[in-house]
Amino acid sequence: MKEHDLDALIAPSRFLIAQAEKREAYQRYNYAGQALELATIRERFAEIYSQFEPVNKIQAMKLDERDKLCAAAYYVMTGRLPKETE
User: Fold this and answer.
1) Cβ neighbours of residue 68 under 8 Å, at least 6 residues apart?
2) Are residues 61 and 85 in contact, defined by beta-carbon separation less than 8 angstroms?
3) What is the pLDDT of residues 30-86, one digit of tens each?
4) Does pLDDT of 5 surpass 80?
5) The whole model's pTM is what?
6) CA-to-CA distance for 86 and 80, rounded, in angstroms?
7) Can you say whether the dihedral through the CA atoms of 85, 83, 74, 33 is positive or negative?
């Protein structure tokens, strides 16, 4: 009977430990996801930075700075120039 009483006392602390481990695992998971996303952004930026033709086309467009930035952002997101610039 004493073993049963001891298990009843230990069970809540086991649960709290398991809960903390799960919380830590989620934190590591989220950190890894953010690191992957940043690495993907850096890779995409390096790829685009190495491509002179699309960047030069955007710079040569007769648009105000805001529209050029929007065209560049569109190119970054899709890998294509906006239709009105092609």
Assistant:
1) 58, 59, 61
2) yes
3) 999 999 999 998 988 888 888 888 888 888 888 899 999 999 888 888 888 887 644
4) no
5) 0.54
6) 9
7) negative
**φ, ψ (nearest 5 deg) of residue 50:** -80, -10
Residue 41 tokens, joined: 């952004």
State how far Cα 77 lies from the chain centre.
13
Q: CA 73, CA 19: separation in Å to the nearest integer?
A: 42
Between the CA atoms of 53, 51, 82 and 74, what dihedral angle is there, to the nearest 10 degrees? Answer: -150
Q: Please state, in angstroms and rounded to a whole number, the distance separating the CA atoms of residues 38 and 32.
A: 10
70 in Cβ contact with 60 (< 8 Å): no
DSSP class of residue 80 equals S
Which amino acid is residue 44, in one-letter code?
A: R
Q: In the chain, how long is the greatest CA-to-CA distance?
A: 86
